[in-house]
């Protein structure tokens, strides 16, 4: 207990508190002016909006990936299983540059997307691609063990009671997976909000359009505007905290339906 | 064959039943998993309304057979195996359309649903045209909960119930859709001894009440003998013997059945060890057919000397563990308490042992006999 507190204090609490302490050096008016300036507000929208979209996509496709990895036997399954972790290990800048090269107008994949009118680089779509890439392992790795633990008998019981496969999946399997999916979603979402390295290459960083909040913080820092940087950081921190808290509560609520009641 | 929905299906069923109507027929079922043969040309008939037990050690194929009857597994393609329900071929029919109720060893309840929702699941899964309305489902759930004596637990979650209660919810859930056949896979396997015994008795009376053809799988011979109208003993992917419990117990057809059903003493060599005894004969004696006499009593070919190892008495009978003098073969005798006192038995004492009734398997044949005046009375 003591060790845990000391550990968390040193590594998490004190740095976070530092953000607020530094912010507190500003006057309230200055703070408000900085965090509500049009350019900064636009970055909130981009960061939270695209992160949310990416996390939702990951929740859905991550579930499918995890399902296939657990339930199907096919050549290369182990390899694929290992590859899921790559976005964890890859330096994010490398990922960013690779994705940019792929999805730019002249890139391997980008040329086809541009041909049908989707700008995959230097746009929100690009940010979305990067955030989906770095978020997918979170969902897969949280959902996978739960799928492995699913009791096949429960599905058979549903089938023997006359339920169709779809009904079994929606009513029996999915409810069991939702808490894990929410955890994965929350992790992917949190990661996406804070993501910097992989995004800045593919986003183009156009103010008001494809600029993300972490980037604007760095911009402030580069101009030695430390107070402004921490102010934005504080806002982001509060936002993230509230969102994660909500997801946590949601998760606890879904878990309480049946499972945590032993 | 959707059955018309009725609240009182069970009570409306006639008390008399046509004696030879077969509810379930499995014909020439073969099932292999890779190189492993789980069932080898197994055929089984179950008369209407009967309670039948599939008894066997693990790996004998009993659960596989049950799952094939349920439609959760299918016989090997091209093996000509068939499953008929009331004469109707259901070999290729999926589990949900066979009208079976299946109860799993570990209940397989839906954890995130209340007891009531668990039981209603089958009814709510029906096609819209056949599905009863909300009030009818509600009434049916309550009726079933009363039937399994769990009234009042509608709102509980499975994790809030004891093992025995969970198993009864699983049973109610399976019964909700009016199955033609009830299949239970080791229904008491995960329960502790006391609950198991209670629930076993309860299931017996329950089945007599609702009269639905029931097959249950077990590896517990006591359970099978006490509960079933008919016992099907399985071993090594085959049916060894089938018949009423008394018959299977009294007239086992193979060494396997003898050994599997109840305590039995096994003597590999000839009893007296005299010349002329075929050494490969196997002789079986139930503990209650073993009689103990004071040392030095009359001896003959079917008597031997043994040393008392341990005595335990509970109720009217005492269990005596003995070791045969010479070969050190251990065996057991069941002796009335009074006799124990008369003999003044104590560990270490040597006694004469006489067998009243033996079963022999010379060269694979079966020979069962009482012993009279030292001779087999066949």
Describe this structure in words.
The complex is a heterodimer of chains A (262) and B (378). Chain A has 262 residues and is mainly alpha-helical. Chain A has a single domain (38-261), classed as MetI-like (MetI-like fold). Helix content of chain A is 79%, strand content 0%. Chain A is built from 13 helices and no strands. In chain A, helix 6 (92-103) packs parallel to helix 11. Chain A starts with a helix and ends in a 6-residue tail after the last helix. The relative contact order of chain A is 0.15. The model of chain A has no long low-confidence stretch (mean pLDDT 89). In chain B, the strands form 4 sheets. In chain B, strands 6-7-8-3-9-10 form a 6-stranded mixed β-sheet, with helices on both faces. A 5-stranded antiparallel β-sheet of chain B has the order 11-12-18-19-20. Chain B has helices at residues 9-12, 62-70, 115-124, 134-147, 163-175, 193-210, 221-227, 245-250, 255-260, 337-343, and strands at 22-33, 36-47, 51-55, 82-85, 88-89, 100-103, 181-185, 213-218, 230-235, 238-243, 265-267, 283-285, 290-293, 303-314, 317-324, 330-336, 350-355, 357-360, 367-372, 375-377. Chain B has 378 residues and is α+β, with helices and mostly antiparallel strands. In chain B, 38% of the residues are buried. Chain B is elongated and about 80 Å long. Chain B contains 10 helices and 20 strands. Helix content of chain B is 25%, strand content 31%. Chain A binds chain B through residues 151, 153-154, 156-164, 167, 171-172, 175-176, 257-259, 261-262, and chain B through 70-72, 94-97, 100-102, 104, 106, 108-113, 121-122, 125-126, 157-160, 170, 173-174, 176-177.
In short, what is this structure?
The complex is a heterodimer of chains A (262) and B (378). Chain A is mostly helical and 262 residues long.
